[in-house]
Specification:
Blueprint lengths: L2 H5 L3 H23 L14 E3 L5 E10 L3 E11 L4 H26 L12 E13 L3 E11 L7 E10 L8 H4 L7 H22 L25 E3 L3 E6 L12 E6 H4 L7 H7 L1
Amino acid sequence: MNSSSRTSFTAGSSSAIIIVVLVIIIAVLAIFLIPRGKVEAPTSDQVATTTPSGIVVTATKQSSEQPSYNIDTETPVVSGMADAVIQKKINDQLAAKVKEITTDFRNQAVNTPVTSGADTKSGLGIEMSSYSTVKDAVLTVRMTVLIYFSGAAHPMMLSEASNFDLKTGADLNLVDIFDTTKGVGYLAAISEYTTKELKAQLSKAQNLPANSTELQFFEEGSNSNPENFQTFLVEDSGIRFIFTQYQVAPYAAGEQEVLVPYSQLKKFMKEGALTDALTR
């Protein structure tokens, strides 16, 4: 793929792309330009939901305003589990993930002064966007992260996904789900399926045939490199893989997602209670 192929867009897709960019920028400006207070203790003003298993997830909010940046975060908090030890283990991992993202941002933001003439200073927003229990075996939590550094052309949006085994409290990785003793066939299968679906999605969005040389698709972003599939959500019917901005398409295309059904994955999955629960 050469640089010219990444920057050629059809006239039909240009207007849609401009709209997407404007929506993202407006959302970020709304977060970062609204006056915020100093760091606050978690409040009781929390939005909660109850999953079918009785587990309740709340979002605890914190805000910080500094001379060169703003931070607004939501930390998911799980309650209602029968096993308090596993519940604490899950909550500790969620809090650690929010802290890690916040710390990484702050370390960069303190060295990024507000650019002269910039509309806004740097900002970080973390929002809990979805959560569910899957067949009483896995709790999934998805967070949306918005990052902007003063003077940058545009913000970045990415998803953070966690899949907790409700029996152990472990945040599942691919190697916890797939049988690596049989090799890396699962990666090839995921790559083949997601690449085909991504081409179909992007060709529709860009009004181009899937085999067009002008299609804005970065194939290295969905090859069998395991790093390409680290962001995923376990669902009732399969595993949803999330591809960040720039990973498989230009920034304006946003994140891309592909749900790979268990029928394509089951033969590569580890034998045991987790696989039995997910694929039954």
